[in-house]
Amino acid sequence: MAEDCIFCKIFSGEIPSEKLLEAEDCFVIRDIAPKAPTHLLIIPKQHFTYLSGMTPEFQPLIGSMFDAAREMADSEAVVESGYRLVINQKDDAGQEVPHLHMHMLGGSKLGPMG
Ligand code: 5GP
Ligand code: ZN
Q1: C-alpha distance from residue 24 to each of 14, 36, 65, 91, 98 (Å)
Q2: Would residue 101 show up in a list of annotated catalytic residues for this protein?
Q3: Rounded distance, CA 2 to CA 82, Å?
Q4: Atom of ligand 1 at shortest distance to CA of 88?
Q5: Which residue among 39, 99, 101, 103 is the active-site one?
Q6: Are 95 and 88 in contact (CB under 8 A)?
Q7: CB within 10 Å: which end of the chain, N or C, has fewer?
């Protein structure tokens, strides 16, 4: 747990937020400012600021994040219509929260990336 980290506080319950799914090493919440009808955040329980801090021993966690994405795509009914998975890293990508997380966006036609 990193001090003053929003997502660590959400995981610990210090900041209340409905967990749509909780796996052994990650959990899923809805984004507070959704950019699409489905906008979820898939968040490792352990604090990593960036992907570069995830050494190969964390491959199971990365797999678990994709498992969570597959499961949520099913429950959000976007498997057929489509969705986008995004991980923003640092300034050029506009990363706001310095706790690694994956966005899942879907439920409507998404704009081009860039
Ligand atoms: P980033 O830009 O770091 O990839 O994305 C951070 C995301 O976290 C943003 O889409 C923002 O709306 C969301 N977010 C920031 N604070 C909170 C919060 O307290 N609760 C939830 N559910 N989402 C948050
Ligand atoms: Zn954190």
Answers
A1: 19, 27, 10, 30, 21
A2: yes
A3: 34
A4: 4
A5: 101
A6: yes
A7: C
